[in-house]
Amino acid sequence: MSAEQQKKPFALKGLGVSPGIVIGKVYLFDPLDSQISFYKLKKPSSISAEIQRFKDALKESEKQLLQIQENLKEASIKEPLYIIDVHILILKDKKFINRTIKYIRRLGINAEWAVRLTLDHYKEIFEGVDDAYIRDRISDVQYIAQRILRNLAGEKRQVVLEIGGEVIVIAHDLSPADTAQMKMDKVIGFATDTGGRTSHTAIVSRAMELPAVAGLGNITQLVKTGDEIIVDGISGMVIVNPYPDMIKRYEEKRIHYCAIDEEYLQYANLPAVTRDNYHVKIGSNIEFVEEIPSAIAHGAEHIGLYRTEFIYINRHDLPSEDDHVDNYLQVVKARGLNWSTIRTFDLGGDKITPDEKHVKELNPQMGLRAIRFCLKETELFKTQLRAIWRVSAAGNVKILFPMISGVEEIREAKKMMEEARRELLEQDVEIASRMEIGVMIEVPAAVEIADKLAREVDFFSIGTNDLTQYALAIDRANERLSYLYEPLHPAILRLIKRVTDAAHEANIPVAMCGEMAGDPLCAMVLLGLELDELSMNHLAIPRIKRIIRESTLEESKLVLKKVLKFNTSREVRNYVQNYMMERFPEEFQNEEDQLIIYNNKKIPPEEIFR
Fold first, then answer.
1. What's this model's pTM, rounded to 2 decimal places?
2. pLDDT per residue as tens digits for the range 353-410
């Protein structure tokens, strides 16, 4: 790319993982890969010394991570310390160590080369995994490999010491250990090649409330330190080398966002009650206990969905019952929450537990996962059920079973739940007298038998992410099919209506915990469907509350009645967009704001994407 070409603006579309807009200079994070030398050992007698050099680098890496962890604790940094524990476990992993030593011994190569070969081996394994969450975990191994390589090279410098002013860090991905060594007071945003909402960069960005975009593919190959860049963590847009009028437009957008963000927070602690007195309970979806304080500050009245898979995935051994209890107690005992809904683990398919002998499935999303996996691996399931019962004595807990497709499954799950309860009572363990039981409605079959499922449980929770995927036969991770993934599809709206009708007919509440629940554009449609509870990313709560408080149930029913008459997704979305922009002009930006000025012409961003 020539200097002339580099001056031209271009845009990349990724995933906004931490909201906000920032304009500044690029700092391209260098993992030092280019400075590593690879060579053959000249003498066989050098092998023992090279193996020892590798082991010394392992010890030094562990020492550094422990020091970073201690520094984070002393500074009360909210970054998840347990991720560094995971990195330390990788350093001690016998398979990782033995494979590297084998390369040194058999190939007669230096330790740096051997570490790189070991990393390549793990990359090949992870790239064959279909599940994006598991695939992203190769970054943990990469972080450790890079740290070992630095120590083998005698690299002692701190990362990003040469930052001279405020910068936006561009990287392939970042670990908490990387960011802990940066001068974070100089960092104003992030953009990365890889990652998603559960990546380390996303977690750190949200914790520090810095705008961030992940999943950009190859931004590290397209920018250099010092480039001007705009990062829009709301839309997932990144604009490199913007024209002055582009900067002006985004400055205005940033000022607008900051102003409305402050304004929205005024609604955080207000109830979501419509003008005609219809009350919607508002909860937050969480994966990490560290998210709870921010969830409460943004107006979460309860935890509507606590995903528990992370307890299993990021460790090298199976969590004990006490591990579960310790984790859940931090959620249940949090002040300011009316209740916490704990979803049993959605493992299986490609989300395998430690020690599991995994059989690769052709379609893991429709394979042995969630409740199906639980009912096969009964000891794992029983451990979690006992732990949930134990914490029920400490606060108001509800339990939620995922991916239920038939009455048999929920009855079997309830049977195991009762067995766990009796075991604990026989051991004189204090537990709640009863616990509310719910099912995730995310499989079309569950919609068809919603009336029958309603007789078995205390509440429904609609998972629109998977329900949309399964109902429309779309892999939502497939970029080529993303244009078909539409929660406002007439079929999806009808499915949701059938579920709410069945629930209310049985006098049980119905919640929604999918991404649709936190989409302001869908707020009035969901009101019209008369959902009792919406649970979402906590950053979306104030805005949703504001829209609900300025709406009426009667008006929302009329909107729903209108959209249910349309035949296509495009008709529904166009009507809803126009209605909401007219109804809430200050909430929804004009359609022109979706355009970027390029050479004095207004064109959609996707036309200048690379």
1. 0.64
2. 444 444 455 455 666 678 888 888 889 999 999 999 999 999 999 999 999 999 999 9
The closest of 497, 482, 486, 402 to 442, measured between CA atoms, is 402
Q: Count of CB atoms within 10 A of residue 73's CB?
A: 10
pLDDT at site 458 = 98
Structure tokens at 66: 């422990």
User: What's the DSSP call for residue 209?
Assistant: T
Quick one: which of 532, 580, 588 has its CA closest to 555? Answer: 580
What is the per-residue burial (b if ≥16 Cβ within 10 Å, else e) of 32-69?
Answer: eeeebeeeebeeeeebeebbebbeebbebbbebbeebb
Residues 441/514, Cβ–Cβ less than 8 Å: no
Mean pLDDT for the stretch of residues 438-454: 97
Tokens found for residue 177? 């250990």
- 470 Cβ contact partners less than 8 Å away, ≥ 6 residues apart: 366, 442, 443, 444
For residues 514 and 292, give the distance between their C-alpha atoms in angstroms, rounded to a whole number. Answer: 18
Catalytically annotated residue among 87, 200, 302, 538: 200
Which residues have CB under 8 Å from 466's CB, separation 6+? 403, 442, 443, 514
The total number of residues shown for the chain amounts to: 610
C-alpha 460/C-alpha 450 separation (Å) is 9
Q: Per the structure block, which two tokens stand in for 538?
A: 């906590």
Hey, what amino acid is at 210? L
What's the confidence (pLDDT) of residue 280?
Answer: 98
Q: In terms of DSSP H, where are the helices of 108-228?
A: 111-127, 132-136, 138-152, 176-180, 200-208, 219-222
Query: Does 200 participate in catalysis according to the annotation?
Result: yes
Separation CA 598–CA 471 (nearest Å): 39
Q: Confidence class of residue 195 from pLDDT cuts 50, 70 and 90? A: confident
Domains annotated on the chain, with CATH: 3-29+163-262 (3.50.30.10), 33-152 (1.10.274.10), 266-565 (3.20.20.60)
87 is catalytic: no
DSSP string spanning 276-305? T--EEEEEEEESSGGGHHHHHHTT-SEEEE
